[in-house]
Amino acid sequence: MSSRYWLPISLAICFITSLLLRIIPPFHQIFTPLGVKFALNDAYYHMRLVDNLAHNFPNFSYYDPYFVFPGTTVIGGAHFFDWLLATISWIAGLGSPTQATIDVVGVYMPPIMAALLVIPVYFIGKSVFNKWVGLIGAGLVAILPGEFLGRSILGAADHHVAEVLFSTTVLMFFILAIKSVYTRQTRIFTILAGVFLGIYLLTWAGGVLFVGIIGLFVVIQIIANHLRRDPSKRVAVITGTVFAITLLMNYSRTMPKEILLVLGLAIIVPVTLALLSWLMFRMKWRSAVFPAVIIVSGILFLVVANWLYPSFTGYLSMLLPSGSTATTTLELQPMLSPHGQFTLEVLWGNFTTVSVLAPVALAVLVGVTIKDKGNDEGRLLLAIWSVVMIALMLNQRRYAYYAVVNISLLSGYLGYLAIRYTTWTKVLSEKLGRKLNRKEKRRWERKQRMTKALSAFVLPGAVAVAFTLLIVPATMNVSIDTARQAAFVPPNAWQSAMLWLESNTPEPFQGKDKYREFTPLSKKNKPPVPDYAVSAWWDYGYWITRIGHRVPNANPAQNVDAVERIADLFLSEGDEYRGIVSALKSQYVVLDSGTALGKFYAVASWGDRDASEYFGYYRVPHDVDGYRTLLLFYPAYYRTLVSRLYNFNGEVVVPERTVVITYRGSDVLEAKEFRDYEKAREYVDRNPNTRIVSADPRISPVPLEKMDYELVYGSEEMVNGLAEVKIFEYVPEKGEK
Predict the structure, then answer these.
(1) Per residue in 2-11, pLDDT tens?
(2) Looking at per-residue confidence, does 243 or 737 come out higher?
């Protein structure tokens, strides 16, 4: 069959497979009796903006008074993804979209954009290598599990899927531009590369990452050209034009100055280096002087820029966060040591079989590129791009959603090499055929035709089938399971709690309509201050805003001050919480089992405490097993607000018994039980290496006082005998009674 038929059919199969994989398994997790859910936490932030824009199209609100309190309500950043969803919703709703229309558009766009990714992946593979690499890469990127699949399933309305699609499209057009032989094609591809790079930066400000990747490629390519004594005018002009278009699209007062500075440098540097290379040719300088000058100049520039303009290099730290943000956020953990211990589990979960193939392919590609001295621009760019993305992925697992493109192309390259080396019989037959006489040659030609058929179709086909059978079954099983889990969809307990919060609590802005959040606010408007706010761990802030239509005290926007204030509130002991509650205007507190237990270490970290102050693991003697490891909780844990509210509903607690252990290191040597807490405390004061503990977070070994809170809601879903989600109202007058 002609490639004009089977190639489009194959790409269509990849597209449909990708789409169905992302829609069918998680469908019932997204469309539920409790309403439409979204599959990522940040999706609720984006859909909040889409709601506002679709109802006020084309007026974008500069402020969102429901965003957070206290703190900034300014909506910064790049929002092309939100504009795209809102525009489609507005058109689909004929200018008056319903909430259902907006939700459906937001739910289905991520799978569609992920399915479209097979197109640029195919053309990159085809342009750099051949159609086999492109087709295998497109097939793999459609089915690989992990970060990218999780961020592109039904309901994953975050801009990550758009980032990958747009950045890959940028490099597709850039590669086509530098490899094209016709001037008209070069111009068209260059303009499209610049336009999509502009769109990419309007989608995510961190898109300067790909400006850096392209810039690094151009510098290395110009050096390679200089060492080969080849001109660099063409690649410099293409690159400068791409970045100039991007700068024009992104130039605005709201765009960070750091990005504009990077783009300005990206325009100047390639042209300057190409001109410098030309001058050194004319002056007949030694070839080695050119790269030396570039390296020294680059180091000096970074030193001077960091000295004169510290925010320039500081801004780039957004790509590599640190502190509590990095240590307590799952997606920021290292790929091979997510919890401080080496493991291949996360890597395998992202790429399965190809996690073994891709490193081999990358090593081969780098070796071939070095041997070729950068003569093939496409291979050099793919090698640099892959090294950067894989390095970032190993440092922070979230970059796996970018690296999936590189892993797919590299695996396709290795598959192509396997197919290529099955054609050795063709070469051998041609060499032998030349040494035969005429009669023998005719007979050999008949065999040669069979050999060519074998080498051209049968053997490559067999290798392709084996390659497919080795990868696809294992990968699809993991991918279907990943898509079905929809791991970050709000649990029913939280969805119900937020719906209750919207219906059973007063509006946060007195005298304002319930849908005050749909009023567009410009820079001239002063955002209103809420009458009260809702306190919950920062993970849940966007749910409170979009589902509950209330104002949270913290959200996942990584406002350090906001998260630290919530951590201080949750870790407060005694009556400390009253002053914090007053400053936060916190009328309600929403707690779940995760905050009280699984995420408590994160609360402690943000509160500048160590989790070891609140609990620890001990080896306890056991009649059958000899020793058992138990998690034992200390008095400090039970005195925190989060424990007093979630575990005991803020009520008075008088312990019936108090256990004191004597320990050495992590071994429990003895356990004593006291009926009187005061006697237990006196015993601990007199004896070293002893402490009061409890093995059950619901059984306090220390007395607790009544708090100024009343339990107003508990979810039907239970965890360890307690409602999974609880809502408490601050009622100081009852506490005083």
Answers:
(1) 567 888 999 9
(2) 243
Asked whether the whole model's pTM tops 0.85, one would answer yes
Tell whether 466 and 611 lie within a shared domain.
no
Question: How far apart are the C-alpha atoms of 679 and 689, rounded to whole Å?
Answer: 17
Domain that holds residue 652: 492-736
Task: Give me the pLDDT at residue 427, please.
Answer: 47
Close Cβ partners of 348 (under 8 Å, ≥ 6 residues apart) = 355
Task: Give the domain-ending residue among 485, 501, 522.
Answer: 485
Residue 597 Cα distances to 1, 158, 181, 281, 719, angstroms: 61, 28, 62, 68, 11
Tens-digit pLDDT profile for residues 448-474: 666 555 555 555 566 566 666 667 787
The alpha carbon of residue 389 and the mean position of all alpha carbons in its chain are separated, in whole angstroms, by 13
H or E stretch covering 450? helix 438-453
661-676: buried (b, 16+ CB within 10 Å) or exposed (e) per residue?
A: bbbeeeebeeeeebee
Tokens of 67: 């965003």
Summarize the confidence of residues 547-567 as an average pLDDT: 94
Burial tier of 254 (Cβ tally within 10 Å: 0-12, 13-18, 19+) = exposed
Question: Which of 503, 504, 565, 507 lies closest to 536, judged by CA?
Answer: 565
Q: What is the pLDDT of residues 321-362, one digit of tens each?
A: 666 565 666 777 888 888 778 889 889 988 988 888 899 999
528 CA to centre of own chain: 33
Please report whether residue 218 resides in a domain: no
For residue 573, how many other CB atoms are within 10 A of its CB?
14
Tell me, yes or no, whether 555 and 671 share the same domain: yes
Q: Among 228, 200, 206, 232, which residue's Cα sits nearest to residue 219?
A: 232
In angstroms, what CA-CA distances link 417 with 130, 138, 424, 454?
11, 17, 12, 17
Compute, in degrees rounded to 10, the torsion defined by CA atoms 358, 360, 362, 367. Answer: -170
Q: Say if residue 476 is in the same domain as residue 522.
A: no
- Give per-residue burial for 71-80: e unless 16+ CB within 10 Å, then b: bebebebbbb
| Sheet bearing 533-535, strands edge to edge | 533-535, 586-592, 725-730, 709-714
Measured distance CA(384)–CA(394) in Å, rounded: 16
Give the E-state strand segments of 159-202 in sequence order. none
More confident residue, 608 or 372: 608
| Residue where the block lists tokens 């032989």 | 181
In terms of Cβ atoms closer than 10 Å to its own Cβ (0-12, 13-18, 19+), residue 566 is buried
Q: Are residues 683 and 701 in the same domain?
A: yes
- How far is the C-alpha of 402 from the C-alpha of 412, rounded, in Å? 17
Helical residues (DSSP H) of 93-159, grouped into ranges: 99-116, 118-128, 131-143, 147-150
Using the 3D structure, point to which of 452, 485, 518 is the last residue of a domain: 485
